[in-house]
C-alpha cells in the first residue's frame, strides 16, 4: 500500500510539473512557505507536445554517429545546443532515446523503435521544401555503395551528378552489403548502390545494368587471352577471393557451385579490396574473378592477363535500393535514370 507521505510527494511533483505548487499551512501569524519541486517524469508524455525538426535532426544525428561531437559538427551546431535539443525531445516524449556515458553512446529500445519514424518525418519535410522550390533532387543525399563498385563508378558519377543536379550534395558511405541494407532500414542511408537482388523486406530495388565477370591471371597463364571460358575451368584453379562479407565473394562461390567446380584453396590468403586480390594474382598466388568495370583500373597495375567467358557470360546486376516507405521515390527513380544514362554514355 502506498503511504500517505508518498502520495503527497507524487502530488507535489505533478503540480510542479504543471507549473503549480501547493502551500503548506503554518502556525497562525507565521509566513507561508511555498514548496517548489522540479521533477522530470520519464514515461509521462505531454499529449500536447510537438517535436521540432531541429530536435528530430539532433536525435537522428546522434543515433547515426553515436558521438555527440561528430553529430554536432555535422549539423553545424554547438554540442550544448545539440544536447539541449535531445533533452527537450526526450522530456517532451517522456522517453529516453539515447543512453550516454563517458565511453559510449547507445540508442535505447525506444530510440530504435522511433528512429525510422523520425527519419521519415525529416525526409517528408525535406521533400516538402524541395517540392516548393521545384527541385526534388536537392540537399544532402546519404548514398551507400559497395567496395567493388565505389572506386570505379564514383570518378565519373560524382561529376555527372554535379552537372545534372547541382543542388544535390552526395554523402558517400562505402561498406559491405549487409551493413548498407541495415543503414537503409534504420534510416541512416537514403539510397544504396549495390548488387541485386537482395530480397530484403521493405526495400525497393531498381536494376541499373548488368556487367560480366572477367578472369584475371598472371602473365602467360594457360587460360590467358581466351574468350571461350566456361565456369568449369575454375575447377582446381588456385582462386583468390575477397574476405567474407563481400558480395563478390559470394557470387564467385555461387558460380563455382553451379558448375560443380572446386577451386584449390590458397592458404589463408584474404583481402579486403580488389586491388589487393589483383596484386596477389600479379605475384603468382593464383587467379581471380573481377567485375568488368574494374578491369582497366586494376590490370594496369601489374603484369597481368585476362580471359573472358563465352556467352551468356556470368556476371552481376547492379541497382539502386531505397526504403519502400520513403516519400522521395520519384526523386530516387530520377537518380537511377541518371546513373543508368551515365553508365551507357561510356565506361565507368
From TrEMBL:
UniProt keywords, alphabetically: Activator, DNA-binding, Transcription, Transcription regulation
Superkingdom assignment: Bacteria
Name recorded for this polypeptide: Probable hydrogen peroxide-inducible genes activator
InterPro entries: LysR_HTH_N (IPR000847), LysR_subst-bd (IPR005119), WH-like_DNA-bd_sf (IPR036388), WH_DNA-bd_sf (IPR036390)
Annotated ranges, domain HTH lysR-type: 51-108
Stored CDD domains: PBP2_OxyR
A GO term from the CC aspect: protein-DNA complex
One MF annotation (Gene Ontology) recorded for this entry: DNA-binding transcription factor activity
Organism: Nocardia arthritidis
Coiled-coil regions listed: none
Pfam families membership: HTH_1, LysR_substrate
